[in-house]
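Example (one chain per record):
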Amino acid sequence: MFDKLAFIEERYEELSQKISDPMVIADQNRWRKLCKESSDITPIVEKYRDYKSAKSAIDDARDMLEENSEKEFEEMLLAEIEENKAKISVIEEELKILLLPKDPNDDKNVIVEIRGGTGGEEAALFAGSLFRMYSMYAENRNWKIDIMNSNPTELGGYKEITFTVEGAGAYSRLKYESGVHRVQRVPETESGGRIHTSAATVAVLPEVEEVELEINPNDLRIDVFRAGGPGGQCVNTTDSAVRITHIPSGLVVSCQDEKSQHKNKDKALKVLRSRLYEFLEAQRNDAISRERKSQVGSGDRSERIRTYNFPQGRVSDHRINLTLYKIDSIMNGEMDEIIDSLITHFQSEKLKNTEE
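Predicted structure:
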């Protein structure tokens, strides 16, 4: 590990010089690529330097112990050695995680699809609550949200809603949200005060650029139709909604939120590209997944991942046995505690798998 760290630090120094070279700066494409590489390895280099600093402090303290016989000073030096040993132990674990292969999609924007599941109108209302939660979380992190397609209900919920989230590290922080989210609460439609259980599914897909996945136009069937909705003035009176079917895979994407047929088609293609990318990746990884002891990060949407219990004020993530009694703040977008815990857990699992 330390040979690799020394090489990374050497590369970091080399990149620092190149980034400052006027000839490199003149080639903006190359300069941006080198800046990105430097930015990616900076946390590793900083942590490695912390490690070397703590190790150097231990060596210095041991040298001073040999030269000094005063008991009080000796106790102080021994305490410093133990403190730095503990620090090194923590840093070594952090370095192992930093050196794990990075998910190539982590820096991408995401497409999120939320669908009301079992529970009828209450499930649609819960889908709306989840959309609000993710919207507020995105706002907290200065990410941008753009609705791609939605199928609202009269009570303000969504049978389904698809939206993009654009911002630094969006996929790295939202990728563990894929799965079945269950809610337990007294619905607005319930007059008897009984607690109902319903569910919504969430899918988080990395946004895929056209250069990453080329789709043959001959594989597509494109239909246009009149946009629907809960009624009122919002319903389009022209055939601007678009439905695209990818014939080989059977994937179907609809988009009707824009008044322009062209814009709806562009958005639908963007969603289709990401769904198809996930579909192909799942096929490629299927054989590997069957052999793995733990389905870490599989994003299996059939699995119930989280329960939101409103009467008890708790949110429980079943994958990591985490329960937080702060449902109001979580539903208002304060999700960092859950997401940080998920990232830590899955990184640890990944580390275990690499060490086996």
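Caption: The CA atoms of residues 228 and 235 lie 6 Å apart.
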